[in-house]
Amino acid sequence: MAVLVYADHDEAVLKDATNKAVSAASMISSEVHVLVAGANIGAIAAAAAKISGVSKVLTAQSAGLGKQIAEDIEATILPLAANYEAILFLASAAGKNAAPRIAAKLDCALISDIIEVVSTKSFVRPIYAGNALETLESMDAKNVITVRSTAFKAADNSGSASIEAITAVDSGHAATFVSESMVKSDRPELQGAKRVVSGGRALGSAEEFDAVIVPLADKLGAAIGASRAAVDAGYAPNDFQVGQTGKVVAPELYVAIGISGAIQHLAGMKDSKVIVAINKDPDAPIFAIADYGLVQDYKTAVPELMAALG
Amino acid sequence: MKILVPVKRVVDYNVKVRVKSDQSGVDLANVKMSMNPFCEIAVEEAVRLFEKGVATEVVVVSIGVAQAAETIRTALAMGADRGILLSTDLDPEPLTVAKLLKAVIDEEKPNIVIMGKQAIDGDNNATGQMLAALLDWPQATFASDLDIANNKAKVTREVDGGLQTLEVNLPAIVTADLRLNEPRFASLPNIMKAKRKPIDIKEASSYGVEIKSHLKVVKVVEPPKREGGSKVESAQELVSKLKEAGVL
Ligand SMILES: Cc1cc2nc3c(=O)[nH]c(=O)nc-3n(C[C@H](O)[C@H](O)[C@H](O)COP(=O)(O)OP(=O)(O)OC[C@H]3O[C@@H](n4cnc5c(N)ncnc54)[C@H](O)[C@@H]3O)c2cc1C
Ligand SMILES: Nc1ncnc2c1ncn2[C@@H]1O[C@H](COP(=O)(O)O)[C@@H](O)[C@H]1O
Fold first, then answer.
1. Residues of B with CB below 8 A from A237's CB?
2. CA distance A263 to A240
3. Cβ under 8 Å to A: B residues 58-87
4. Does the reported pTM lie above 0.80?
5. What is the pLDDT of residues B45-58, one digit of tens each?
6. What CATH number does domain A190-309 carry, 3.30.413.10, 3.90.580.10, 3.40.50.150, 3.40.50.1220?
7. In 3D, which of A44, A150, A12, A33 has the Cα closest to residue A85?
8. What digits encode the pLDDT tens for the residues B174-187?
């Protein structure tokens, strides 16, 4: 039976994470469909149709879907569920919000945040902030899954799937959209970025965060991340939090500045290819996992680093 | 208005767990247990709504072993009114927890349920959304701000790319994110007072919900170890090492 992937996009671009979920889906079934839901999705659907391994793109268009209203996603997907052996979402805020609702309606477990497909019914996922990995075997006939995108290679874009519109079901407005405030940026997106520069509590203020982390990120062409302490203190937006309960990243280069390396932070970045830590405390736990540790005050280290980068 | 807050007893967030050598799970013997931090935030929010006069009663419920009564007691010391323990030695999956919570809600008829977005043991982030589905209630997950008026909740949510505000009709499920509030420490007089607050202990099996496993744990292993610990002396050396490593 086919597998359905719920596309991750912001109505402007189809996120690369979708290609990664398609890779995971292809390990479960040779027939993969992608559902593109939203208000403004023409270009997104065309992009999804190019993902290799996808045979059909379904489009569902409504305002509620555009705002990722879980009730509307549930109402739209449930009538399709009989056609699929598995339904995959990304482990993004939108996916985590909607997937468990659908699983409960289908009376099956949610298998969240998978990092490996062992077989069509068996998956690996991290638990306890990534300090353990559990292999699960599902006894449900149908599986609802969220996929940790950093753990899968993106399927390439040489496909040509058909596109078919389906009905977007309105759940009846028990939840209504009021407003949103999105962080606008030309920078690479945190989760898909090849390089990430993150700042911690040491930065001490939003001004200092902007003065130190932003130019370094610009120089490296990197996305910006932050520890929970930095976000809680208002130095960086919520959306920048890397960790167990924030975003999980695995860039080629992760630079942690003034971050101690609590297990909750490590959970979100320890699968990065190369980790750099700048911290004035030689005993900071971050050094235990850093490939290159620099024990120095960031106030001297970062300007010197900027100069050395040229 | 009555608020129900489900709370879970989990490994304390400061503990780095170890995997058992037989790969059957993590070793929880003699490990410090606490209330799940997100549940603390949910309790705090409910108690604040009570203090503001928005809520008239805060009921906490936990599903788990007998010691989960201590977790309930902590919530009572923070200001909740009474507790319900659904005792079981099994470790029910989120779907079963949601079914049991639904059974409690059918009896208690709260106007709103505030719970954690995620339990830091299984890191599932599922129970609230599942409960909303089973009840056919609206949900507002990952809340960083909650405002209740006119039988509606206005909730600001932490979403991909920023913040979103939703309005949900009550009854509804709200799940708490880290920045909803900063939970208080219970004062000594309140800890003493909490000892006299009622906790109703029931067998989880008495609710007519089958405690069934949908997932079989095949094995639990340690993640691959990362070899770190190398130091550089200067920013210049760092840059040349990064060039050697091919990441610059
Ligand atoms: C339920 C829960 C969930 C959590 N989720 C997350 C999460 O997702 N992500 C996350 O990051 N955290 C999370 N945390 C918080 C986590 O436990 C830590 O509190 C947090 O990561 C600490 O942030 P920090 O490293 O910036 O601050 P600190 O731990 O205070 O570290 C600051 C570091 O800066 C160094 N420093 C100070 N001044 C300088 C200087 N001038 N130059 C160089 N170095 C300097 C210090 O030596 C120190 O090591 C969570 C906690 C809980 C309870
Ligand atoms: N055994 C339990 N007893 C009470 N509440 C629970 C239990 N398990 C999960 N919850 C609630 O569901 C939330 C999310 O947990 P989870 O879906 O397991 O990540 C927790 O923060 C609790 O509020």
1. 162
2. 17
3. none
4. yes
5. 999 999 999 999 99
6. 3.40.50.1220
7. A33
8. 999 999 999 999 99
